[in-house]
Design a protein that fits this description.
This protein is 34% helix and 24% strand. The protein has 400 residues and is an alpha/beta fold. The strands form six sheets. It has an eight-stranded mixed sheet, sandwiched between helices. The chain has a six-stranded parallel sheet with strand order 3-2-1-4-5-6, with helices on both faces. Strands 7-8 form a two-stranded antiparallel sheet. Helix 1 packs across helix 8, helix 3 crosses helix 5 and helix 9 packs across helix 13. The protein binds cytidine-5'-monophosphate (C5P).
Amino acid sequence: MLRGKKILIGICGSIAAYKIAILTRLLKKEGAEVQIIMTDSAQDFITPLTLSTLSKNPVFKDFQSDSSGEWNSHVELGLWADLLVIAPASANTIAKMANGLCDNLLLAVYLSARCPVYLAPAMDLDMYQHPATLNNIEQLQSYGNSIISAEHGELASGLVGEGRMAEPESILEVIETHFKKKEKFENLTALITAGPTYESIDPVRFVGNYSSGKMGYALAQQLAYSGANVKLVLGPVSIDIDHPNIERIDVTNAEEMLKASKKVYKECQIAIFSAAVSDYKPADVADQKIKKESDSFNLQMKKNPDIAYELGKIKKNNQINVGFALETENEIENASLKLKKKNFDFIVLNSLRDEGAGFSVNTNKVEIIDASGIRKSFGLKPKDEVAKDIIDYLYEKINS
Ligand code: C5P
């Protein structure tokens, strides 16, 4: 299953470090190539000799090799890996990663790695629940890193709670799913519309909305990390995009968004419509800045094209269209109507009645309504996590 896959494991100081001997064996049995980096304190819990014997590779501890004084290039290690798994990930290393600190080889490799990164935290329950740790984990998720959640159970301190590192078998399963998903998505191209549209009133004013484009960008990132090629048709937002699999196509208004989306739709197997497109636009755009001469001002509006609807009409059997619905009332009924009308395969509903859901916030709470009638609800989560849930659902759908 993992034949030829290059897995780099970073081990931090935690009693759970002993479990990495088992994880290394499991990975090797599956045919993976394994290289290991240990922090100083990790070596208090398990010896480099054990791990080099099991991985059949020298273990890296510092920028220089002990014996030869040779330079261990963090850039090369980062580029070598198909996947970096930091397990156990201590509160200390998590905090340093979240803040870009770089005082050991593992952190230098993390900062220079171009591959997906998974972390399996291990710490005492109160450390795991501390707002600082939770913030740091959320920060790492916003960089696109994935968390293999710690489990509930007896901890080294004798306390019982959440904080035990996931078992090696569970970590192996996450790694296998990652590569299975990658294989599935690698040959796929996805269109994502995101952000608001600005509809000009005159040369300096527009009608728009508060959409930040964050949800669409999180989806683009998750698909790109899963190996898909993403065409991100983006309304005016200030987002920096730096993934080689994401092609950014900037547009300003709904007409431009439709044109750009139509142009790439035929080559896409997946289309996700997350843009908050202005439903109407000013009927006439003034050539010059409108002067404030009268006491009142009427703006005549006309309907904009519905991008999802237009592309839903030409959808082929091998294409999956996903829509979003932001509702304030009769949520399920309204979302189900849109699902049908726009020929979506499933629609992601978020209600403005849910606290923490909506435009400018970093969190979202969604429910998926599938054309088959299946409904799936999710809890309030950071938008990156919501994006993962949606992409996982998409993956199941492609596989079913
Ligand atoms: O009808 P409503 O705007 O609520 O529909 C929401 C869904 O339709 C979203 O997926 C949105 O991106 C898409 N949409 C669109 N073009 C429009 C309006 C909405 O693609 N003009």
